[in-house]
Amino acid sequence: MFSETSGGNDSSSWDFGGQVNIDNAAGLFDIIATQLKAVLSGDISEAEIEVAKSYMLGRYQMGCQTVGQIANFYTGRYFYDDVILDYDKVPTAITGVTRDRMIETARDFIKANTWILAGVSSCEKQMLVDLNSKLETIFEV
Question: Cβ(52)–Cβ(95) under 8 Å?
Fold first, then answer.
């Protein structure tokens, strides 16, 4: 399971992905919906925020170990808006994230009400419809 964000000239996205056995899919989607609703309602602790920051700092530190990773870091924004990111300022940006800003950003994504569920599976279509219904509840908050 993973979650990531990306931004471009005219849009941004918040993606979730992962792999799960068919038997566990409904439970996983219940967890996703419950946790997202908790964030949207502000039910997230400072300790959880600190754990997320620690994780992101680790990803940052491991994210430029190869020439390709370094090139991707610098070209990420350069090709669409001529911005050259300052690699050394990333830790400060990560540690500067606040609980309120995180909640506000999550709410902004949900308010846009633009989303899709894509699944690759040997299951019946109805299962994907049922999983989709679990995600729909997030947008009712």
Answer: no
Find out whether 137 and 33 touch, Cβ atoms under 8 Å.
yes
Determine the Cα–Cα distance for residues 14 and 32; give it in Å rounded to an integer: 13
Q: What is the tens place of the pLDDT at every residue in 76-107?
A: 778 877 888 888 999 999 999 999 999 999 99
Using only the alpha carbons of the chain, give its radius of gyration: 17
Mean pLDDT of 40-67: 92
Q: How far apart are CA 94 and CA 4, in angstroms?
A: 14
On whether the CB atoms of residues 57 and 94 are closer than 8 A, the answer is: yes
Single-letter code of the amino acid located at 82: D
Number of DSSP helices (H) and strands (E) in the chain, helices first: 6, 2
